[in-house]
């Protein structure tokens, strides 16, 4: 029979409805809320409210009234800030830069991560732990530090790359590949480990069946293993696309070493410039929200593609 | 088996290892460069070649690093440890509690909370930093410890993972038995469920530690007082001066080494934990 707990044990969390004969189910009403509340409050206070506040601010701009003797005051401008941002050639250029960056970085990094994961998953590899750990280590390096290390490696007379490469990694044509390399260096290992752990869950019987059918290791990898970890690949794709849109740290660090990275080189840099150098909070808020909206739409698109493909 | 097939297998095995070796060198050599450069003094830094060791001057560089601007670097180390250490412990606990509640308990708004959490995973942190700054300046908490600490506790992906761990690792029968024994829900969580979720929670903790330790945009936006800077922001500020003042080079490089070493050690030591944690998380 149901053992009714002593009140001292059960009553404390809820503090409600005293009496020893209380059915056990009722006592659990408040406890789940207590467990979920800290995160729920954080989510509201640090994600939802700031977004709503930025949305509100993005509809205003600071103007001088009359002859300007009263100082600046906020004017409601409807979507004027959004129009300003979208019409600003600097913003459009930053979107273009990030688009080219993402088109190079995303397939390069995820392709390398997948290829390495498939190599590691092959039967003949030795020292698996050593390889995975070595390739993973850059993930532990803060983005700023990774940026600094590579910036030094690119620098003339300090790093070896400036002499070794046929182009100038800090020059105007070199900035993009230099930044792609920084990000690829940091993220390949992390994604490789994610893919590798997913590959380990592919049932061995399926692979044996494929081998019995006469498929070689490369064929097995591409025709059997890759389709089976497709959900993992799409999740990684979503995160990489979102991360690419946010590109900020690497170009900012490179700015101290190279004049070819402008102060509005990516949308995130544009936001930073608008807020802290131009002190135009309305425009900065509008650009921030456009960035958030673009990543939401892109990730929804990728997710949509993933469900359609697997059907 | 015919000999030609065997040789091709041998060569492919060699090719596989060669590719892995190239990937490993690409990943590790920049870190080797960081180490070898942090042993050089200002003169050797630009005169010796990249991987060549000059007069070993690591101790001298460290002494300079901690003496610069009245030892502000030590404050940065302390701040990074506080932001990341406290933040990761508290954040992982909050994630575990919420993930467990979503997976195993019933409460009003459970589905809505999970839906908003999933959306939260997709909101880019850089897009959030400016709204956070605007709100913090409205609340007059800009340039305080809390302005950086509290937003970084929010880890929707950690909740998502914790929910997957709770579902995989905590059987309903065990919870039912604990309730039968008269333990309250909170007690059941802390004494029964949390220990069962441990590998997952350690993974969330480690990755949140890395996330906060490596975070840069939020402190950059929120802080102007150098005494509150984490290492990443402080080193960035020094690095922006190297163009004019090359004497900052060894400070930036030696400081970078110190910012990297703890995490590298943590990942090597806790390998088994995070590997198994990632495995559980990636299946779901």
Automatic annotation (TrEMBL), chain A:
The annotated region (Disordered) lies at 1-25
Q: Which residues form the ABC transmembrane type-1 domain?
A: 95-302
Which terms under GO biological process does the entry name?
Answer: transmembrane transport
The protein here is known as Sugar ABC transporter permease
Which InterPro entries is this protein grouped with?
A: MetI-like (IPR000515), MetI-like_sf (IPR035906), UgpAE/MalFG_permease (IPR050809)
Topology term for the membrane: Multi-pass membrane protein
As for subcellular location, the record says: Cell membrane
PROSITE patterns registered for this protein in UniProt? ABC_TM1
Using the record, list the residue span of the signal peptide; answer none if the entry has no such feature: none
Q: Write down any Gene Ontology CC term.
A: plasma membrane
> What residue ranges are annotated as transmembrane?
30-56, 98-119, 131-154, 174-199, 228-248, 284-303
Organism source for this protein?
Streptomyces radicis
Q: Please give the SUPFAM superfamilies that the UniProt record associates with this protein.
A: MetI-like
Keywords (alphabetical) are: Cell membrane, Membrane, Transmembrane, Transmembrane helix, Transport
Q: Which family does it belong to?
A: Belongs to the binding-protein-dependent transport system permease family.
């Amino acid at each position: 029979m149901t053992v009714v707990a002593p009140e001292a044990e059960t009553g404390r969390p809820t503090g409600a409805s005293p009496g020893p004969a209380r059915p056990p189910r009722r006592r659990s009403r408040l406890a789940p809320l207590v467990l979920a509340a800290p995160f729920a409050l954080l989510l509201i206070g640090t994600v939802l409210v700031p977004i709503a506040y930025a949305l509100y601010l993005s509809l205003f701009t600071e103007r001088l009234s009359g002859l300007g003797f009263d100082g600046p005051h906020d004017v409601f401008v409807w979507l004027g800030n959004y129009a300003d941002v979208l019409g600003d050639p600097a913003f459009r250029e930053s979107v273009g830069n990030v688009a080219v960056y993402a088109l190079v970085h995303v397939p390069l990094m995820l392709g390398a991560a997948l290829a390495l994961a498939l190599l590691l998953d092959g039967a003949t590899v030795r020292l698996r732990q050593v390889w995975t750990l070595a390739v993973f280590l850059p993930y532990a390096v803060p983005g700023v530090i990774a940026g600094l290390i590579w910036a030094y490696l690119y620098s003339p007379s300090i790093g070896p790359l400036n002499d070794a490469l046929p182009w100038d990694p800090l020059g105007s044509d070199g900035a993009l590949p230099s930044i792609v390399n920084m990000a690829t260096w940091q993220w390949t290992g992390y994604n490789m480990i994610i893919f590798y752990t997913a590959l380990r869950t592919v049932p061995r019987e399926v692979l044996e069946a494929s081998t019995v059918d006469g498929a070689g290791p490369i064929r097995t990898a591409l025709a059997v293993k890759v389709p089976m970890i497709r959900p993992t690949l799409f999740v990684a794709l979503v995160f990489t696309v979102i991360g690419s849109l946010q590109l900020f740290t690497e170009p900012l660090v490179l700015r101290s070493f190279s004049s070819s990275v402008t102060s509005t080189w990516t949308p995130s840099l544009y936001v930073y410039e608008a807020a802290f150098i131009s002190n135009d909070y309305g425009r900065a808020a509008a650009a921030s929200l456009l960035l958030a909206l673009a990543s939401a739409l892109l990730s929804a698109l990728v997710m949509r593609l993933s469900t359609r493909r697997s059907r | 088996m015919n000999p030609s097939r065997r040789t091709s297998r041998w060569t492919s095995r060699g090719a596989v290892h060669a590719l892995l070796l190239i990937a490993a060198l690409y990943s590790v050599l920049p870190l080797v460069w960081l180490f070898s450069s942090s042993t050089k003094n200002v003169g050797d830094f630009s005169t010796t070649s990249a991987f060549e060791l000059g007069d070993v001057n690591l101790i001298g560089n460290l002494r300079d690093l901690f003496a610069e601007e009245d030892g502000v670097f030590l404050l940065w180390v302390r701040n990074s440890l506080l932001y990341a250490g406290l933040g990761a412990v508290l954040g992982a606990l909050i994630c575990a509690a919420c993930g467990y509640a979503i997976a195993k308990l019933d409460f009003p708004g459970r589905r809505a909370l999970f839906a908003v959490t999933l959306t939260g995973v997709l909101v880019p942190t850089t897009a959030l930093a400016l709204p956070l700054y605007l709100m913090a300046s409205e609340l007059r908490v800009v340039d305080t410890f809390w302005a950086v600490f509290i937003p970084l506790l929010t880890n929707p992906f950690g909740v998502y993972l914790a929910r997957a761990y709770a579902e995989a690792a905590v059987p309903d029968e065990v919870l039912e038995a604990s309730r039968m024994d008269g333990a309250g829900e909170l007690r059941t969580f802390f004494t029964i469920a949390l220990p069962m979720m441990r590998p997952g929670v350690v993974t969330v903790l480690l990755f949140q530690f890395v996330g906060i330790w490596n975070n840069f945009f939020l402190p950059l936006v929120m802080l102007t007082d150098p005494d509150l800077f984490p290492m990443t922001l402080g080193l960035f500020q020094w690095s922006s001066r190297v163009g004019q003042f090359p004497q900052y080079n060894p400070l930036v490089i030696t400081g970078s080494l110190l910012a990297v070493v703890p995490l590298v050690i943590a990942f090597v030591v806790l390998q088994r934990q995070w590997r198994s944690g990632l495995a559980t998380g990636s299946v779901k």
